Structure formats: structure tokens, C-alpha cells
Amino acid sequence: MKKSVTVSVEAEKLAALEMYLGQKNMKLSGELEKFSEQLYQKYVPSNVREFIELTAAKKPPKKPKSIAPAENENHSEQ
Fold first, then answer.
1. Which member of 2, 9, 47, 71 has the lowest number of beta carbons within 10 Å of its beta carbon?
2. Do 8 and 17 meet the contact criterion of CB atoms below 8 Å apart?
3. What is the C-alpha separation between 71 and 7, in angstroms, rounded?
4. Type and span of the H or E element at 30
5. Torsion sign (Cα): 17, 20, 24, 25
């Protein structure tokens, strides 16, 4: 499960950052995801990372919720 993190940045700095990243066909969200992965690799001990990977691999994928057919479909054709 992914979670969101909120970071406060001055509007002018954010606009400049997004503009210059855009010139290199990059997105801020992608760069922040890469950086968060670097932080994770740097600070979380390898045995903990291995444990997290093992537990994530054991979890069965979530089943998609089935969509019930609309009750009105049969009545609208008449």
C-alpha cells in the first residue's frame, strides 16, 4: 500500500523546479519517488528491507470488487 507525504515548498521555488524539470522531460513526482527510494536504501537496514520484501511477497493480491449489473437495464429495454 502506498501512502502520501506532504512537503511544504515556497510557490516560486516549486514553479521554478517544475519548469526546469519539465525542460528535461522530468516530473517532480518521479524525482521525489527516486529520492525517497534512495533514502529508504540508505537508512533502513538491509535485514529490515528483506523482511518487508518477504512479507509483501506472501500477501495474496487483492481481489477486484465485482460490479453488480444495474437493476434498471432489463426494464429500460421494454
1. 2
2. no
3. 45
4. helix 28-43
5. positive
Q: Compute CA 26 distance to the chain's CA centroid, rounded to the nearest angstrom.
A: 17
Spatial contact of 55 and 61, defined as CB atoms under 8 Å apart: no
- Report, as an integer, the average pLDDT of 10-31: 97
For 26-76, what is each residue's pLDDT tens digit? 999 999 999 999 999 999 999 999 999 999 888 776 666 777 665 555 555
C-alpha cell of residue 75:
426494464
Q: Are 21 and 27 in contact (CB under 8 A)?
A: yes
Q: Give the Cβ contact number of residue 31 at 10 Å.
A: 13
Q: Rounded to whole angstroms, how far apart are CA atoms 75 and 63?
A: 30
Contact (Cβ atoms closer than 8 angstroms) between residue 41 and residue 50: no
CA 48/CA 53 separation, integer angstroms: 9
